[in-house]
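Holo model, zinc ion. Inputs:
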Amino acid sequence: MTGTTRDLLQHPEPGDRWLVAVAHPDDESFGCGSTIAHATTRGAEVTVVCATRGEAGEPAAELPHGTDLGSVREVELRRAAGHLGVARLELLGYRDSGFDGACGPGALCSAPVDELAVVLGRLVEEIGPDVVVVLDGSDGHRDHLHVRAGMRAALAGSQGPALYEHCLPNSLLRRWLDEMRSVRPDTAYHGLDPATLGRADEDVTDVLDTTAVLDRREAAMAEHRSQTSPFDGLSADLRRAFLTADHLARVDLSDHHA
Ligand SMILES: [Zn+2]
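Output:
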């Protein structure tokens, strides 16, 4: 970068390089798909690195005969990445840890953060991204938190890329919880504490208006047929609120020494 004050997140341009690191196929679409499409439609070259093939996900329907969930989800990821305009896709080959239970051999949660940081750091060095995006993991999935920790460690003290955590603000998830409780009063949603949902609104540093790339986001999400969309069954208003604005929290890398 040469002395520009351009906001790289809001105003990507051709020649910009982005690296988006996620844990599972579908995180790039259900999570930060609009942010990716926002960048690629403005000409940025986006690499997505996905740590696992999502083997531990819940299949939404019976799988085609003779296929395993990991290979089905890899295909879904590749198709979704196409809709989002992703230039390059890297799979790290860890196993999906699942939401809980023991961390088995090869599982992402078994990999020390330092080791993951080395792997991600190599990609950062190779690509030289201007912007790096991860999910903030405030949904509590240990693999999401692990990728976030690995990237923070990889970039600690770095003068290089701007690191953003894609997040869902608490205020939006409170709306979601209110709706879930009224639509499905018989479910476990009553056990959730609204105060702990998502990311504190004051942590959000940037909001992207992603209305213009909604079609790409929808097309990418639709490829993940083996998974249930988190946006299924929402009211039109709430669904639109989730899908037409992306919230990000910039990470101050000087705070995070390796
Ligand atoms: Zn995930």
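The pocket of zinc ion is lined by residues 23-24, 27, 141, 144 (CB under 6 Å). The mean pLDDT is 93.
Archived with the compound record.
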